[in-house]
């Protein structure tokens, strides 16, 4: 296996929206050398697939205070309020930065002088700003700017381990170039982790196949703390069939206009039972859980779904086609023209969409010195449930902030010394997979089992018994994983090797979700326990924190810092 050493000031791990934004900011800082690494091409990941909706409060009577209160209420009061305030206050500047780089958000008003605002579940004002070209448009803009700045990029390169110096500060990372198997060692003054979320640990997800939670596992193994990993968001409307599309996104009520109705197989508008005031416009956690409950109680369709009926809302179809061309075309291709044109109702089911949990940060700095974590990889800003359009906001603000801070810090720091032992042991781990005796489980099968397990036992409705069983099954899989060696020994485009490395990450992430979910003995936000169905502020106005201690996963909890708002003032 060839080896290559690269020295840089700032290393960015992840080439999605957050990573690109951070790399641009760092590289713009007075001669700072910036390298960006992506498991696929630059620009890959969820940002590229998103509708790009970006929430900012700029039209009175809306205000940043109201946006902040909506975000905390939506997050069921366990948000890191300082982070939430940071992203909301800096959002308008970062939306304008995107326009400076070349993106364009939709305008309206008499002189096309106002940014249009769309409604989104849980937001009390229409503040979702739609970029032309959706998420792909944003990614194209950021990628072009990164190329213009001459950022050195490493594509199809999977980071496998964060490296620490003698003092335990981050010093770089190892990676494998999937194209030819070169083992890369990055030595950096500062590292920004932006490897996205972990939706792929679940069977059905709206996420890109790259989102296997690598960033969470890398940070965890390096000694970072992770927060509220039990908080996994489901998108309420997703394809229920065909198999290849199951779980792909069809959106939420905000995308379909005020007349969209959800019906069970008996034709009942069931949201009236679960959230009589907001109905289908309730937050994603409530709508997703309500759909799921209808299905498991036997009122679902033959495809284990419910009906989305928007026949009365057809005046909004032109708007929908214009704003969400990908969702429109996909529903036309897979559900047929009548469904796509809202002449008939069509089937929808919830699927995993977003991780509110992630690496615990203050101002996007982790507890490991010089390691910044941003975008969906970071946890805390959204608490127990993220509002639509608040992720685009976070990835742009956190990217800009961490990029600038990392660049500034790198100017004042010496290049940290790498520890050879860590590099050797990581290379040995990969070599063992490629040269060991051919035994143990097929990594693709391990991946399949993790997905099924997470879906069935840590999904929309959880209970202590299933969670405990899940934890045992994960440990069983981990033992089998330890024996894996691969049937494909090639160094060229070895996707089996990539799958095995991902499977190890997914096991850690799944264990974090299960253990955190078992610890939180209440229901809050996206986390619903049928054995503890009520929110319990007296005992659980807390964050659940996962970390590694002497090689073992440990859990603790800490009181939420109610920096600005308290639940009793808001409910
Ligand atoms: C279908 C869909 C629609 C959405 N619509 C919206 C919306 O309208 N508004 C909104 O606010 N949010 C939306 N979201 C959520 C939002 O898109 C994501 O939360 C956000 O894009 C995450 O950005 P990111 O940069 O953190 O991660 P990503 O964009 O997912 O990028 C992750 C990057 O990390 C890289 N990577 C992963 N592992 C490794 C590794 N081991 N080594 C090297 N690189 C690695 C990947 O290659 C990728 O480049 C949507 C999500 C989906 C899936």
CATH topology of the largest domain: FAD/NAD(P)-binding domain
Q: Tally the helices: what do you get?
A: 19
Second rung of CATH, namely the architecture of the largest domain? 3-Layer(bba) Sandwich
> What percentage of residues falls in helices of 4 or more residues?
25-40%
**Judging from the principal axes of the Cα atoms, what is the shape?**
globular
CATH class identity of the largest domain? Alpha Beta
Distance between the termini: 59 Å
In quaternary terms, these chains amount to: single chain
Unreliable spans: none
What's the rounded overall pLDDT mean?
Answer: 96
For CATH, the homologous superfamily of the largest domain is named as FAD/NAD(P)-binding domain
Strand content: 15-25%
Identify every distinct bound molecule in the structure, by name, code or SMILES.
flavin-adenine dinucleotide
Number of strands: 21
Biggest sheet features = 7 strands, mixed
Please identify the structural class as seen in this structure: alpha+beta
Tally of discrete structural domains: 3
């Amino acid at each position: 296996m060839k080896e290559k050493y690269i020295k840089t000031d700032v290393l960015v791990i992840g080439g999605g929206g957050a990573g690109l934004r951070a790399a641009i900011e760092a590289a713009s800082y007075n001669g700072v050398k910036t390298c960006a690494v992506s498991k696929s091409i630059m620009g890959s990941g969820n940002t590229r697939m998103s509708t790009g909706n970006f929430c900012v409060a700029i039209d009175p009577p809306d205000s940043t205070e109201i946006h902040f209160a909506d975000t905390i209420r939506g997050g069921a009061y366990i948000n890191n309020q300082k982070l939430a305030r940071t992203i909301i206050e800096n959002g308008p500047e970062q939306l304008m930065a995107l326009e400076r780089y070349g993106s364009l958000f939709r305008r309206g008003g008499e002189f096309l002088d106002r940014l249009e605002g769309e409604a989104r579940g849980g937001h009390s004002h229409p503040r979702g700003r739609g970029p032309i070209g959706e998420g792909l448009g944003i990614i194209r803009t950021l990628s072009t700017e990164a190329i213009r700045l001459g950022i050195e990029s490493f594509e199809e390169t999977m980071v496998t381990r964060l490296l620490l110096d003698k003092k335990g500060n981050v010093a770089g990372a190892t990676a494998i170039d999937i194209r030819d198997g070169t083992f890369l060692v990055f030595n950096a003054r500062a590292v920004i982790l932006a490897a996205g979320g972990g939706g792929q640990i679940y069977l059905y997800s709206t996420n890109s196949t790259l989102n296997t939670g690598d960033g969470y596992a890398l940070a965890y193994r390096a000694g970072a703390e992770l927060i509220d990993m039990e908080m996994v968001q489901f998108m309420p409307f997703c394809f229920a069939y065909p198999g290849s599309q199951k779980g792909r996104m069809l959106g939420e009520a905000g995308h379909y206009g005020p007349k969209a109705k959800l019906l069970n197989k008996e034709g009942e508008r069931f949201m009236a039972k679960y959230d009589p005031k907001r109905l289908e416009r309730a937050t994603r956690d409530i709508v997703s859980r309500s759909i799921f409950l209808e299905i498991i109680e036997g009122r679902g369709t033959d495809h284990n779904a419910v009906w989305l009926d928007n026949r009365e809302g057809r005046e909004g179809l032109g708007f929908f086609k214009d704003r969400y061309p990908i969702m429109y075309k996909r529903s036309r291709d897979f559900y047929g023209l009548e469904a796509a044109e809202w002449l008939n109702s069509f089937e929808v089911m919830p699927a995993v969409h977003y991780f509110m949990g992630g690496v615990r940060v203050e101002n996007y700095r982790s507890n490991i010195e010089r390691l910044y974590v941003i975008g969906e990889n970071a946890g805390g800003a959204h608490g127990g449930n993220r509002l639509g359009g608040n992720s685009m906001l976070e990835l742009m603000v956190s990217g800009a902030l961490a990029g600038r801070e990392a660049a500034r810090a790198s100017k004042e720091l010496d290049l940290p010394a790498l520890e050879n032992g860590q590099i050797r042991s990581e290379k040995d781990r990969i070599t063992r997979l490629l040269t060991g005796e051919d035994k143990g489980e097929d990594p693709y099968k391990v991946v399949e089992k993790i997905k099924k397990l997470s879906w069935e036992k840590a999904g929309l409705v959880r209970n202590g018994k299933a969670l405990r069983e899940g934890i045992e099954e994960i440990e069983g899989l981990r033992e089998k994983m330890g024996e894996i060696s691969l049937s494909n020994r090639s160094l060229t485009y070895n996707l089996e090797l990539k799958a095995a490395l991902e499977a190890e990450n997914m096991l850690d992430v799944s264990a974090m979700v299960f253990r955190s979910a078992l610890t939180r003995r209440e229901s809050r936000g996206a986390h619903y326990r049928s054995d503890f169905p009520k929110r319990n502020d007296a005992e659980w106005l807390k964050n659940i924190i996962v970390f590694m201690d002497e090689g073992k996963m440990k859990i603790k909890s800490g009181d939420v810092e109610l920096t600005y708002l308290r639940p009793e003032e808001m409910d």
